Amino acid sequence: METVLSGIRSTGRLHLGNYFGALRNFVKMQHTDRCFFFIADYHSLTTHPDPKALHGNVKNVLAEYLAAGLDPEVATIYIQSDVPQVAELSLLLSMHAYIGELERTASFKDKIRKQPENVNAGLLCYPVLMAADILLHRATRVPVGKDQEQHLELTRRFARRFNQIYGTEFFPESQPYNFGEASVKIPGLDGTGKMGKSEGNGIFLSDPDEVIRKKVMKAVTDSGPTAPDSPMPEVIANLFTIMKAVSTPDTVEHFTGLWNRCEIRYGDLKKQLAEDIIKTVAPIRANIGDILADDAYLHKVASMGAERARASADRTVSQVREIMGITRF
């Protein structure tokens, strides 16, 4: 049994990309591995947090985790800020993290371009905090997207450096994990890139039917194929990628045939795609509503997850303090 950790920032809701990319696999893995799933509210503070919205965002993501099938009786599901050892381990790791390597991260460079008026120390030290999240439970596997691979490499570097400095093998070198198969990457509706919260190109698990229909009908397309069996441009291939995730094989085969025969009507394709997406998310959305309405249950889940996570974290931090020579009189 390996230790698996994954987290999501509390700045938004879960979308189809989250669900097909990881959540479905997490539901399976929670029964075979030691799994930790957390909501990263500390990480969200590096941008422009709204204190009035933060708690609601955390509540939404927690409800969506549960609605998608994560079981708090089996896996440890917690909120990052409920575990104070995260901050302590981040501080201790930062003593051996160098300014130059943090400034060179692609995410830091990207963020300072997007928010030049708010280049804060937390933004610079984001990879250290992420490393603390992972190393806190000594995770061996971390499902990450392409945009986080550099951060995971830094986590391994920090772990190696700690082990070398103190002559120990305490921290494992956490490896990226794609569930033993090619990752399912759900593209956005704008024709480029992956589906995401900040790109405005996503379909969320909690979206009402009419919102889903409107979003899909506005998806980017082209003028259509000009010759039989033409190669699909990216914008059309993206729609078929989503269709393969939510529709039956017969439906995919039907519309693929229409494309190959130059008979495709994008309006019909989008209508079918929208209804299949609705059918996929409907049971999850119903669960989200029920869970959000049950504050007592959410409180129980958060409290239980915090207790388990703190127990695991305390073991790690206590040993790190001892290794570094921080002992009580």
Annotate the secondary structure layout.
Blueprint: E1 3-9, H1 16-29, E2 34-40, H2 41-44, H3 51-67, E3 76-79, H4 85-94, H5 99-103, H6 106-114, H7 121-124, H8 126-135, E4 141-142, H9 149-166, E5 175-176, H10 209-217, H11 234-246, H12 249-260, H13 266-292, H14 295-323
Parallel strand pairs: 1-2, 2-3, 4-5
Main location: cytoplasm
Subunit structure: Homodimer.
Organism: Alistipes indistinctus YIT 12060
Describe this structure in words.
With 329 residues, the chain is mainly alpha-helical. The mean pLDDT is 90. The chain is built from 14 helices and five strands. The chain starts with a strand and ends in a 6-residue tail after the last helix. α4 (85-94) packs parallel to α14 and α8 (126-135) crosses α9 (149-166). The protein is 55% helix and 7% strand. The protein has two domains: 3-184 and 294-323, HUPs (Rossmann fold), CATH 3.40.50; 209-289, Tyrosyl-Transfer RNA Synthetase. A motif ('HIGH' region) lies at residues 10-18.
Please summarize what this structure is.
The protein is mainly alpha-helical and 329 residues long.
Specify the CATH architecture of the largest domain.
Answer: 3-Layer(aba) Sandwich
Q: What is the 3D shape?
A: globular
Sheet-strand content, in percent, reads 5-15%
Question: How many separate domains?
Answer: 2
Class computed from helices, strands and strand pairing: mainly alpha
What is the percent of helical residues? 55-70%
Number of strands: 5
Question: How are the strands of the biggest sheet laid out side by side?
Answer: 1-2-3
> Using only CA atoms, what is the Rg?
22 Å
Low-pLDDT parts are: none
Q: Can you say what the CATH homologous superfamily of the largest domain is?
A: HUPs
**Sheet bearing the most strands, described?**
3 strands, parallel
> Helical stretch count?
14
Highest CATH level, the class of the largest domain: Alpha Beta
Average of pLDDT: 90
CATH topology of the largest domain: Rossmann fold
Distance between the termini: 38 Å
Order of helices and strands: EHEHHEHHHHHEHEHHHHH
